[in-house]
Amino acid sequence: MAFAWRASGLTYNRYLAVAARVVRRSLKEGPRLQAERRGEMELRFAKWENGKQGENKSLAQENASSMAEHASEGQK
Asked: What segments bear the compositional bias annotation Polar residues (predicted)?
């Protein structure tokens, strides 16, 4: 039996991010604002090829574009 998050095309990390966002949004105003600030982060990555670092990219932007591309492929 496949997990629901896997069947829907999500990675486990993306599934956890969605679940965390849902929990944060369900909190009352004060604790929600604190939790949302803790949840914000800016991760960057770069691919290395032949011992040289490639362009730094935002992980959030790359995830969003990958999810949009995956969604458009599913509609075809």
From this structure: 56-66
